[in-house]
Amino acid sequence: MSVEIAIPPTPQAVGDQFWGKKDREMIATEQKFRAEFERLASENPHGLVRMKFVESEAPYMQGQIAGLYPDEALGMLSHEKAAPCDENGEFLPLKAVTKRSEAPKASNTVEIPDNWSALHHLQKIRLAKEIRGSEEPIKLDEAEAVIQAEVERRNQ
């Protein structure tokens, strides 16, 4: 007798459609602040990041200060449960790292073909994402509106 166990697909197997907007925002937050959290941990003799909880998250209570490993601290920040603080409990300003490739392109650098309305729908979506300078998902009608607005802006 054999038993089959259904294993849910991994995010990698499903692709980007698996992730919701909030998931992508949390991942982006973690990527932006990873270097800063590694720096804070390197300054601590135990390799921990001092975090103050702004919301209770078991086993921590709101207002409590705890030392967390950088990955755990990043998770708490991205879930908006805690933020880094100094020894007095004052929140620390964070320096975000933005890669140059992530910076939005100037929309004037994106070439819009004269016959853009005849393009395949996936080409329109790609073009709209380039104009916006963002890889956030977009629907076809929104993509067409972005392209049309950019064409009108350039023709003024």
Description:
Helix 4 (121-132) crosses helix 5 (140-155). The longest helix is centred in the first third of the chain and has 22 residues, at 21-42. Helices cover 40% and strands 8% of the residues. The chain folds into two domains: 11-84, no CATH class; 104-155, no CATH class. A three-stranded antiparallel β-sheet has the order 2-1-3. The radius of gyration is 22 Å and the shape is elongated. The relative contact order is 0.11. By secondary structure, it is mainly alpha-helical.
Which features does this protein show?
2 domains; mainly alpha; 156 residues
Q: What's the end-to-end separation, in Å?
A: 73 Å
How many DSSP helices? Answer: 5
Kindly name the structural category: mainly alpha
Instruction: Give the low-pLDDT segments.
Output: none
Q: How much strand?
A: 5-15%
Can you lay out the helices and strands and say which pair or pack?
Elements: H1 11-14, H2 21-42, E1 49-53, E2 65-68, H3 70-78, E3 82-84, H4 121-132, H5 140-155
Antiparallel strand pairs: 1-2, 1-3
Give a short summary of the structure.
40% of the residues lie in helices and 8% in strands. By secondary structure, the chain is mostly helical.
